[in-house]
Design goal:
Strand order of the largest sheet: 5-4-1-6-11-8-12-10-9
Mean pLDDT: 93
Helix content: 25-40%
CATH class of the largest domain: Alpha Beta
Distance between the termini: 50 Å
CATH superfamily of the largest domain: Spore Coat Polysaccharide Biosynthesis Protein SpsA, Chain A
Radius of gyration: 20 Å
Oligomer: single chain
Shape: globular
Bound molecules: 1-O-phosphono-alpha-D-glucopyranose
Low-confidence stretches: none
């Protein structure tokens, strides 16, 4: 499989749910254990074979750009001290991939952010990865989506079953089964429906493999939910008419996903990921057991 596609990471949101932490820093830079959320996403792209990543940035671009740049003074100091472990932590981010930045300008929604990648992406299939959703490295999703996109010449969206009470937080898909257990045909999509109006409990999680035809559709997509240009609406247009760019398929993800989109989920994700780590997990677990009876 040739996964030499580009990835686009929209990171221009205002991060209002995390104020004041996000006053001078994009929410994608919030640490999850000891790495900024966006670094997990970049690492996921790299492990799917992607080495060209465009980050769509907003007003707080510098922290992001600096994170993926070299920090020569710090590298020098750690080298002198012989602290090679910390040195590798510092250099890891800058050595991962070619990372490019473009500003979104007006924050007019996810669809608008994706449209800003048009020049960089050109006339090729590309991935979109949202920093609010972290996918466990042990449960690869993106490479499966790229494979499905290539073999079926399709647009591919990642779907996950959620509790019906949560569906209003996501794009929701109306689907039909295919001959593969983890692949469905998407018949319709609706952005953040109420539980009553939702056609299913299959939520779009933040991974997409898109064909370049999406750009023309996005150009013509009027503002939708929340007055924003919604990627979900553009995908719904594609799903409605296979003639435009072939089918829109969903890959159903049944692995481990960590949501960092709001404060409570962010805290839970940080704890889960720390519990899984050899250097932190055992002591953290002991402490949690210790305090649990007092809660
Ligand atoms: C965006 C999309 C939504 C999708 C979600 C996944 O919403 O608009 O369709 O389900 O990401 O995280 P947001 O969470 O940015 O409001």
């Amino acid at each position: 499989m040739d996964a030499r596609i580009k990835a686009v990471i929209p990171a221009a949101g205002l991060g209002t749910r995390f104020l004041p932490a996000t006053k001078a820093m994009p929410k994608e830079m919030l640490p999850v254990v000891d790495k900024p959320a966006i670094q997990y996403v970049v690492e996921e792209a790299v492990s799917a074979g992607i080495d060209d990543i465009l980050v769509i940035v907003g007003r707080n671009k510098n922290a992001l750009a600096n994170h993926f740049d070299r920090v020569l003074e710090l590298e020098h100091t750690l080298e002198q001290k012989g602290d090679h472990k910390k040195l590798s932590h510092v250099t890891a981010a800058s050595a991962l991939a070619d990372i490019f930045f473009v500003r979104q300008g007006d924050p007019k929604g996810l669809g608008h952010a994706v449209l800003r990648s048009r020049k960089h992406v050109g006339d090729e299939t590309f991935a979109v990865m949202l920093g609010d959703d972290l996918i466990d490295a042990r449960d690869p999703l993106l490479s499966r989506m790229v494979e499905v996109s290539q073999t079926r010449s399709a647009t591919v969206v990642a779907l996950m079953e959620v509790d019906p009470s949560q569906i209003h937080l996501y794009g929701c898909a109306d689907v039909e089964a295919t001959d593969e257990d983890d692949v469905v045909t998407i018949k319709a999509l609706v952005e953040k429906p109420s539980a009553d109006d939702a056609p299913s409990n299959l939520a779009i999680i933040g991974r997409y493999v898109l064909k370049p035809e999406i750009f023309d559709i996005l150009e013509q997509t009027p503002p939708g939910k929340g007055g924003e240009i919604q990627l979900t609406d553009a995908l719904a247009t594609l799903a409605d008419d296979e003639q435009i760019a072939g089918p829109v398929l969903g890959v159903i993800f049944r692995g481990r996903r960590y949501d960092t989109g709001d404060r409570l989920d962010y805290l839970k994700s940080s704890l889960q990921l720390a519990l899984d780590r050899d250097d932190l997990g055992p002591e953290l677990a002991a402490w949690i057991r210790d305090i649990a009876p007092t809660l």
